[in-house]
Design a protein that fits this description.
binds pyridoxal-5'-phosphate, Aspartate Aminotransferase, domain 1, Aspartate Aminotransferase, domain 2, alpha/beta
Length: 415
């Protein structure tokens, strides 16, 4: 198969050249060059990933895992390449520990429903944190309602740092699952998940990490973390939409019942009884998003070429620059001031509603996110309706940050 369709070859740290691979960043919106600072919601795809998907559709498409014919085998190889590459990318021990899903939300629902239905009983406790995305709250509430389990919440302080003393106090023999976000999409906080996992394991409690905002921005090693489950989405890491990963330890996945029933996830079907396929296929019912998986394999190669450590360093540099510049603006308050942060800056402008901030910035072609960012409980705990949020990627530039600063000043003048 065609491994890659490289459009540009570059050195690891030539950020201008890397940026130039993202066709959408060359666009003008509302008469200005686009400044895209909504990467937390969804990031952009480089040309080679777009090309790979097009090429797959033009030359290689067939259904996967079920065809004896050449095209189907080619499609299967192209699709399975993402699993091989992802195993290495997050350092999973086994390839079958990489489950394809449609994204973080799907991955968490899978664990909540499959693991939870088997293991949770009346009065058992599920421990989440105060800074979870709705995707790591609602699935647990649903399974709690179905099983009689109870949701407990680790509180945080005003900087957006988890109160670990409280976590240790809440952890008990009643706890049956800890589910915590690695990096908060709203506050940017990087949580000490290794410590959380270690403490939970002392009680024999498995831990699910919501890594939607971590895997795109830093090197994640699931074995070093000793995470039991780790969930993330392709579209937040320069990959296609509709595709995601659930990493799970082989032993746990083997013991869990299927989440969805249908084709591919079975071994033998009769009207009397059905037996299940092995992992990962036990959790992958029906025709998957094949072209997204093929494109994602290309994304992983792209990120590997730049290097996740390089990406993390670049984003930390941009975060520092943006934090300094934004902090100098009168009337601007940053929400989320943890010591350890990823490149997310939520902010409030005195007397101006976040929606108005976003609307006026859009007139200048500066794309930020406004609202509660699917974290309504965070907004409640800060007593605010929402924030404006600039989420920075490695392909952003200091010039983008300067444009944001000028845009915010323009918003202030406007009101
Ligand atoms: N968790 C976090 C921390 C997120 O930021 C998001 C998306 O914004 C999700 C979960 C849900 O991701 P998806 O919508 O791709 O399933």
């Amino acid at each position: 198969m065609q491994e890659t369709l490289k459009t540009v070859t570059k050195t690891n740290t030539d950020w201008e050249a890397i940026r130039s691979q993202f066709p959408i960043l060359k666009h003008e919106v509302n008469g200005h060059k686009l400044v895209y600072l909504d990467n937390g919601a969804s990031s952009q795809m480089p040309q080679r990933v777009i090309d790979r998907i097009n090429d797959y559709h033009s030359n290689e498409h067939a259904n996967v895992h079920r065809g004896i014919h050449t095209l189907s085998q080619k499609a299967t190889d192209a699709f399975e390449l993402a699993r091989k590459r992802m195993r290495k990318f997050i350092n999973a021990q086994y390839e079958e520990e990489i489950i394809y899903t449609t994204g973080t939300t799907d991955s968490i629902n899978l664990v909540a429903q499959s693991y939870g239905r088997k293991h949770f009983n009346e009065g058992d406790e599920i421990l989440i944190s105060a800074m979870e995305h709705h995707a790591n709250i609602v699935p647990w509430q649903m399974i709690a309602e179905q099983t009689g389990a109870v949701l407990k919440v680790i509180p945080m302080d005003n900087n957006g740092e988890l109160l670990l003393n409280e976590f240790h106090r809440l952890l008990s023999s009643k706890t049956k699952m800890v589910a915590v976000v690695h990096v908060s999409n709203t506050l940017g906080t990087i949580n000490p998940v290794q410590e959380i996992i270690e403490s939970a394991h002392a009680y024999d409690v498995p831990v699910l990490i919501d890594g939607a905002q971590a895997v795109p921005h830093m090197k994640v090693d699931v074995q070093a973390l000793d995470a039991d489950f780790y969930a993330f989405s392709a579209h937040k890491m320069c990959g296609p939409t509709g595709f995601g990963i659930l990493y799970g330890k082989r032993k746990l996945l083997n013991e869990m019942p299927p989440y969805r029933g249908g084709g591919d996830m079975i071994d033998k079907v009769t009207f009397e009884k059905t037996t299940w396929n092995d992992i990962p296929h036990k959790f992958e019912a029906g025709t998957p998003p094949i072209s997204a998986g093929v494109g994602f394999a290309e994304t992983i190669a792209f990120l590997n070429e730049i290097g996740m450590d390089n990406i993390a360093a670049r984003e930390q540099e941009l975060l520092k620059y943006a934090t300094e510049k934004l902090s100098m603006i009168d009337g601007l308050q940053i929400v989320g001031t943890a010591k350890s942060k990823a490149s997310v800056i939520s902010f409030l402008l005195k007397d101006i509603h976040p929606t108005d901030v976003g609307t006026i910035l859009d007139q200048k072609s500066i794309a930020v996110r406004t609202g509660h960012h699917c974290t309504q409980p965070i907004m409640d705990s800060f007593g605010i309706p929402g924030t404006a949020r600039a989420s920075i990627s490695f392909y952003n530039s200091k010039d983008d940050i300067d444009r944001l600063v000028d845009g915010i000043k323009y918003v202030q003048e406007f009101f």
